[in-house]
Amino acid sequence: MFEQEGCNRDDWTFISDRMGGVELAVRETFPIETRRVYCQHLYMNCKNNGFRRSAFFKLFWIAAAAYNEYMYGKAMEKITDHDPNAVAYLDTCLEQWSRHKFDPTVCCDHNTTNFVESFNACTKPYRDMHVFSLLEGITPQRTIMHSPVFCLTRSWCMSRIGARFNKAVDMEGGQLTKYALKKLEKKKTQSRFCYATTCGGGEFEVRDGHANFPIRLSTRSCGCGKWQIYGIPCNHALRVIYNQRMNPNDYISPFFKSVAYKLTYADHIDPMLDPTQWPDFGLLIIQPPIIKRPAGR
């Protein structure tokens, strides 16, 4: 896909910290991409600028997790009352960091990079090695009965991708992923406390506690904002779907179904010989540069 369309696509979304080098490299290669900032990094920047009280911590993450502009605005109002300078600093962040700003067509609400930390944990002790040594680096994953269990970085990736490759082969058309089923079951339980009123024309009003949320099945949108950003019906939308005796699978984004899953894991990592059995091409071994570690590093 990348070789065919690459940087000409306009639906790439990158999430990272606010390092200038990353910003420059991504914008040069993908000029029409969307940038999200890693919220934990943004919060640490706020702390370094003096905004570090517990009240600001709670309000910042409420604003970051807000799926609609109302919740975001309320959180920012409280941050303004707490410290106007904090709001002025957050306004300088041009990247997307609050969920209500995310593109609904992406169907991903991540504003952190926690999903890659498990891989980073494998490679952290070996980042200064050659590429081949890094990929074959042995990392202790866990301890069972006081005996360390080791895992090759490449083998670890090969095993995880291989398991998903086999699972994708057995999936039927239109089948939901395990992740989507788990989220749907959770939302189903929450929907029991909601009450739906039919407005006509495929529109509904759902009452959840003391708040009302408009639902439009034609646009697959809810007033809370979660359905359109996340791609899986929220508890308000599910209340309407179940009341109308419809199948919730028909209102879940294709990204959470078997077709997308099969495309994601259409390839797997092939097994390979031990490095000692690789052919010798007589090439020079490139050593890392000799550098002097600066003081304080």
TrEMBL record:
Zinc-finger keyword on record: yes
Keywords: Metal-binding, Zinc, Zinc-finger
Domain (SWIM-type): residue spans on this chain: 213-245
Entry GO MF terms: zinc ion binding
Transmembrane segments: none
Name of the molecule in the record: SWIM-type domain-containing protein
Protein source organism: Spinacia oleracea (Spinach)
